């Protein structure tokens, strides 16, 4: 990781962890089960640094009907607002929904957005996207750099089990639950 991204990551983790700092994190960057359960109520993500998964039925149904229902903590609120404001042109598809559904999606996106979430990866994304409005999670420069350290674009796009940078769960089996720990990565070969 370059010095600038390391500084952004450290800042993001500091913001997310607050006064508690890294205390309570195990050798592999994981919280103890009791502590994690206590901090996130129903358990939330427990595989180390990640994002808060959404349990909102409307989000899971509408977003999950075509692709993985990405956690709102993976983008800043301004990016979700831009995306939800143009659902008729959602990455080449018309994902339009009725007004009530749209209002619910906007609420879930805004309240769980990266800069408002407490999870370390969300804080890192919030810091890395400060002053920008990414149009996709997979185009956030810090995330691209992190992934390109390990994988080439050609490998990802030519791998029948991955095919796209947006297919998080192909390599991160806990992605839907908000877990992106390096210890859980399984790259299909």
Beta-strand portion reads under 5%
Give the count of helical stretches: 8
Domain module count: 1
Rounded mean pLDDT score: 77
Order of helices and strands: HHHHHHHH
Question: Any idea what the shape is?
Answer: globular
Query: What profile does the largest beta sheet have?
Result: none
Structural class: mainly alpha
Give the fraction of residues assigned to helices.
25-40%
Straight-line distance between termini: 24 Å
Record field, number of beta strands = 0
Radius of gyration: 16 Å
The low-confidence parts are 3-47
Tags for this entry?
single chain, 189 residues, mainly alpha, disordered N terminus
Task: Describe the protein's architecture and organization.
The protein has one domain. It starts with a helix and ends in a 31-residue tail after the last helix. The N terminus is likely disordered. Helix 1 packs across helix 6 and helix 4 runs antiparallel to helix 5. It is globular. With 189 residues, the protein is mostly helical. It is built from 8 helices and no strands. The chain is 40% helix and 0% strand.
């Amino acid at each position: 990781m370059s010095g600038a991204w390391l500084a952004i990551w450290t800042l993001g983790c500091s913001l997310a962890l607050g006064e508690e700092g890294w205390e309570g994190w195990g050798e592999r960057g994981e919280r103890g089960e009791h502590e994690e359960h206590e901090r996130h109520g129903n358990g939330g993500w427990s595989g180390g640094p990640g994002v808060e998964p959404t349990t909102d039925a409307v989000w899971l149904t509408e977003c999950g009907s075509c692709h993985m229902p990405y956690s709102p903590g993976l983008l800043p609120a301004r990016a979700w607002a831009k995306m939800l404001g143009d659902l008729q042109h959602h990455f080449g598809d018309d994902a339009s929904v009725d007004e009530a559904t749209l209002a619910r999606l906007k609420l879930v996106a805004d309240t769980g957005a990266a800069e408002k979430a407490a999870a370390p990866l969300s804080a890192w994304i919030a810091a890395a996207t400060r002053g920008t409005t990414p149009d996709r999670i997979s185009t956030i420069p810090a995330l691209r750099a992190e992934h390109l350290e390990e994988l080439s674009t050609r490998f990802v796009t030519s791998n029948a089990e991955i095919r796209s940078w947006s297919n998080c769960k192909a390599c991160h089996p806990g992605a839907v639950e908000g877990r992106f720990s390096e210890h859980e990565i399984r790259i299909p070969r």
